[in-house]
């Protein structure tokens, strides 16, 4: 019964969170972002004291039930393990000694790196962020492709229930790292069970320490046990030493598989005994499979700069090249430094952004902030009234904004390069940038031969990127947004009367 309850709760959380991450049609309301907020690392970085206390008390009471029923990466591994057991009915696990030096060494390294501003290591190893990246970068494009296929089929029969959606790859390196994570964790879960949770995961190591002192634990009744070893062979955490009748509670994820498989009824989940739990035996020499797994996750490929290609194209087209000095962090992130210290690159905001403005960075924030979202105007621009990313961010890397506050948050400032503008190069009218500017930071003024050309007022620009997105010039646009290292408050828009606008700006 306990095992069925655990499976039911875990599947509900897992399926709802997964669907929320890929849901582009808004079938699930935005309030479902609470499923991301109840994850341990987001709650820790966001200083959500209530959630942190709940998870810590839950672990102290029940053991590592967070790892088996709430953590999506843990549930993903359980699904892979279930598939492996279906394919191999005789699959068995063996008791393995705890690799405590590796576990605590990795946790210490993650903490030191994070305190030093090297957030990428935490981003790679945080189980929630790792799973979220897998869903956003791998599963969501597949889901969109299936949607488009159904749209084509239904449309042929005159049914317009479905509609086409553009399929975007958020970032090539985000996709590569998501694939490596998916294949590596999937392979080792298939072969070795919960090895990631009990060797690499910093959350698993920390909660494992608390679970050693949990009130409720799995116990072996030696008077009933016949030492058949079935419980150890079914334990995907490899933490049951059936010969010694001992359980390593720091690695037990309270999945209750041992209870369901014990034919003697010798295993139960009850209040801890007065005797202290035996200390797990540490291993000095980790096997090569674990060493390879850690090395795979730690390897991060470096992106080749786009500017090399861009410079070559610029030589052929005559565009004046430029390079953005500072990336544009999402509105409400205070500054690039604050953002990189709190974001774990879960890509929830990337997935839910309705304008497809947010994309994973490569080295724009530096290697320590790799994969963290930044604003890019290749596929859209930031909606003037949209505050969704600030509402759903589980880490408080993006602080909540009202629409009024968003209207005055300056993430960047507009820059105009006259030499690239088609009004200057082709002697033709355009004005698309001014039409898409919500704050009048870009206006059109008389130029020559009856033409008008953009004039900018960076002080009232909010950096939404509307002008950059619609500019037809390629590869280097005539107008772009330069990021602010620290987000500023834009000056309020001064709306002129129609008569004053004509006299002041056009002189007639």
Portion in strands? 5-15%
Percent range for helical residues?
40-55%
Largest sheet: 2 strands, antiparallel
Tell me how many strands there are.
10
**What is the oligomer described by this structure?**
single chain
Mean pLDDT: 87
Counting helices, strands and paired strands, the structural category is mainly alpha
What integer value in Å does the Rg equal?
27 Å
Spatial order of the strands forming the largest sheet: 1-4
Shape field: elongated
Low-confidence stretches: 274-316, 495-508
Distance between the termini: 83 Å
How many DSSP H or I helices? 24
What's the helix and strand layout?
Elements: H1 2-22, H2 34-37, H3 40-45, H4 49-62, H5 65-69, H6 72-87, H7 100-115, H8 120-125, H9 127-156, H10 172-192, H11 195-199, H12 202-211, E1 216-220, H13 230-234, E2 240-241, E3 246-247, H14 257-261, E4 267-271, H15 288-298, H16 307-317, H17 336-342, H18 348-352, E5 358-360, E6 373-375, H19 388-392, H20 403-407, E7 409-416, H21 422-425, H22 432-435, E8 442-446, E9 452-456, H23 466-470, E10 479-489, H24 498-506
Antiparallel strand pairs: 1-4, 2-3, 5-6, 7-10, 8-9
Helix pairs in contact: 6-9, 6-10, 7-12, 9-10, 10-15
Overview of the structural elements:
Helices cover 45% and strands 10% of the residues. The chain is mostly helical and 508 residues long. A hairpin with a 5-residue loop joins β8 (442-446) and β9 (452-456). α9 crosses α10 (172-192) and α10 (172-192) runs antiparallel to α15 (288-298).
Task: Write a concise synopsis of the structure shown.
By secondary structure, the protein is mainly alpha-helical. 45% of the residues lie in helices and 10% in strands.
């Amino acid at each position: 019964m306990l095992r069925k309850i655990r499976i039911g709760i875990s599947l509900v959380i897992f399926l709802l969170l997964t669907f929320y991450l890929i849901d582009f049609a808004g079938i699930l309301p935005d309030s479902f972002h609470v499923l991301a907020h109840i994850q341990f690392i987001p709650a820790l970085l966001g200083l959500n004291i209530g959630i942190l206390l709940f998870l810590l008390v839950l672990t102290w009471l029940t053991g590592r039930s967070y790892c088996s029923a709430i953590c999506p990466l843990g549930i993903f591994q359980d699904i892979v393990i279930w598939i492996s057991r279906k394919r191999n009915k005789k699959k068995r696990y063996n008791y393995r000694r705890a690799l405590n030096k590796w576990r605590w060494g990795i946790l210490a390294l993650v903490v030191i790196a994070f305190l030093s501003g090297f957030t990428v290591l935490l981003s790679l190893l945080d189980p929630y962020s790792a799973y979220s990246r897998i869903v956003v970068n791998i599963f969501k494009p597949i889901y969109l492709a299936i949607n488009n296929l159904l749209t084509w089929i239904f449309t042929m029969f005159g049914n317009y229930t479905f509609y086409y959606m553009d399929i975007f790859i958020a970032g090539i390196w985000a996709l590569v790292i998501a694939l490596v994570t998916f294949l590596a964790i999937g392979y080792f879960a298939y072969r070795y069970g919960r090895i990631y949770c009990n060797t690499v995961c910093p959350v698993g190591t920390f909660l494992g320490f608390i679970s050693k002192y949990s009130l409720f634990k799995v116990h072996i009744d030696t008077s009933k046990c016949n030492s058949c070893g079935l419980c150890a062979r079914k334990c995907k955490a490899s933490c049951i030493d059936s010969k010694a009748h001992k359980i390593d509670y720091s690695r037990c994820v309270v999945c209750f598989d041992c209870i369901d498989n014990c034919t003697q009824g010798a295993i139960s989940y009850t209040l801890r005994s007065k005797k202290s739990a035996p200390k797990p035996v540490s291993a000095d020499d980790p096997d090569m499979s674990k060493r390879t797994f850690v090395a795979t996750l730690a390897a991060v490929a470096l992106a080749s700069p786009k500017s090399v290609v861009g410079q070559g194209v610029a030589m052929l087209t005559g565009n004046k090249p430029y390079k953005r000095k500072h990336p544009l962090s999402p509105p409400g992130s205070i500054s690039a430094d604050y953002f990189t210290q709190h974001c774990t690159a879960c890509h929830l905001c990337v997935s839910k952004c309705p304008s497809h403005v947010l994309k994973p960075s490569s080295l724009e924030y530096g290697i320590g902030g790799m994969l963290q979202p930044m604003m890019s105007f290749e596929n859209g621009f930031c909606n003037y009234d949209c505050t969704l990313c600030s509402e759903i961010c589980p880490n408080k890397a993006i602080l909540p904004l009202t629409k009024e506050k968003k209207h005055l948050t300056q993430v960047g400032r507009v820059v105009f390069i006259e030499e690239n503008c088609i009004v200057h190069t082709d002697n033709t009218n355009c004005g698309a940038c001014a039409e898409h500017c919500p704050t009048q930071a870009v206006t059109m003024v008389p130029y020559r031969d009856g033409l008008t050309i953009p004039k900018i007022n960076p002080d009232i620009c909010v950096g939404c990127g509307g002008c950059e997105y619609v500019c037809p010039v390629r590869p280097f646009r005539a107008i772009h947004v330069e990021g602010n290292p620290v987000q500023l408050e834009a000056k309020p828009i001064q709306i002129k009367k129609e008569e004053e606008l004509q006299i002041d700006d056009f002189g007639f």
